[in-house]
Amino acid sequence: MTTPFLSPQRRRRFSSYFVLALALLILGGVYSALAPTGYAQDAAATTADQVAKGHDLFILNCSSCHGLNAEGTTVAPDLRPEGAAAVDFQVGTGRMPLKQLGMQAKRSIPHFTQEQIDQLAAYVGSLSATSPKIPSAGQTTVRDANGQLISGVDVAKGGRIFSENCAQCHNVVGQGGALTGGMAAPELRLATDKQIWEALATAPGNMPSFMKQLNDKDKLDVIAYVTSIRSNFDKGGNPIGRLGPVPEGAVGWILGVGGLLVFCVWIGSRI
Fold first, then answer.
1. How far is it, in rounded angstroms, from Cα 270 to Cα 167?
2. Nearby residues of 206 by Cβ (< 8 Å), 6 or more positions away
3. For residues 207 and 199, what is the distance between their CA atoms, to the nearest angstrom?
4. Fewer beta carbons under 10 A from the terminal one: N or C of the chain?
5. pLDDT at position 244, please?
6. In whole angstroms, what is the distance from residue 2 CA to residue 207 CA?
7. Successive 10-residue mean pLDDT values, the chain, 271 residues
8. In sequence order, what are the beta bridge partners of 184?
């Protein structure tokens, strides 16, 4: 008579282990599917960390002008209603912090890394729940991967909005121009889609505050127009920097009429 490979008692013991392992596996799977992932908690912790680091950066670099709590002073505005979008625009384009009070904030190389800019924006944005937020990439996208305008974006309407509200200062083709008091409207050649959106949402510098009333669709139309005129072909010849009729007229008189006068004098001297 042969002895069984496993006794009934040992089989029962191994069966118990198998059932316990299977139960633990099923329980773990159900918990993984239904329990919170923790991503929201991690995101909240990251945001809180950004705000804390942004506060430290603000105290060191911005509070001397804008106040310890960004409430503004006699030399700099209150930043609380301006929000994260204004900070991302001003600091991201190198306009802030100013090197010297009284001078116009001009585009330059940013003084902070993108991580630090995000931290500053997170801190200022935390001071007001209704202040303008930094737009996501999807909010400012006007063209698809092939460079074609996405559905619903209207370049012609953007051109009308720009001509009626922006061209007086920025020039109809976005080349900028002189303003009163020694100020100047910047050219828009280097402005990204996000920066154009943020400028329309916060109206920095001398921009009229009513531009903040544009809805999201109008902002996209303006972005589409501004980015489209950068690649326009100049059918009239050399655009002379697209600075407008004054420099073009000066070139016409100085080189054109002046050249004709020199030629006439030369012809007269030969007779």
1. 50
2. 169, 179, 183, 185
3. 8
4. N
5. 58
6. 98
7. 54 59 64 45 65 96 94 94 96 91 86 96 95 93 90 95 92 85 88 96 90 94 93 61 64 79 82 68
8. 178
* Contact (Cβ atoms closer than 8 angstroms) between residue 142 and residue 149: yes
SS3 143: strand
Residue from 177, 136, 157 nearest 224 by CA:
157
Q: Is the pTM of this model over 0.85?
A: no
212 closest CA partner among 93, 82, 62: 82
pLDDT score of 195:
96
- In this structure, the number of other CB atoms found within 10 A of the CB of residue 258 comes to 12
- HSE-CB at 84 with a 13 A cutoff on CA atoms is 24
Residue in this structure with the two tokens 């190389």, named with its chain if needed: 109
pLDDT for 38: 40
CB 70 within 8 A of CB 58: yes
Residue 14 CA to its chain's centroid (Å)? 64
Output the CA angle 97-99-102, nearest 5 degrees. 100
Contact 199, 207 (CB under 8 A): yes
Of 62, 68, 52, 59, nearest to 86 (Cα)? 62
pLDDT for the residue numbered 40: 40
Cβ atoms of residues 79 and 88 within 8 Å: no
78 three-class SS: coil
Q: Domains in the chain and their CATH numbers?
A: 45-99+106-133 (1.10.760.10), 149-233 (1.10.760.10)
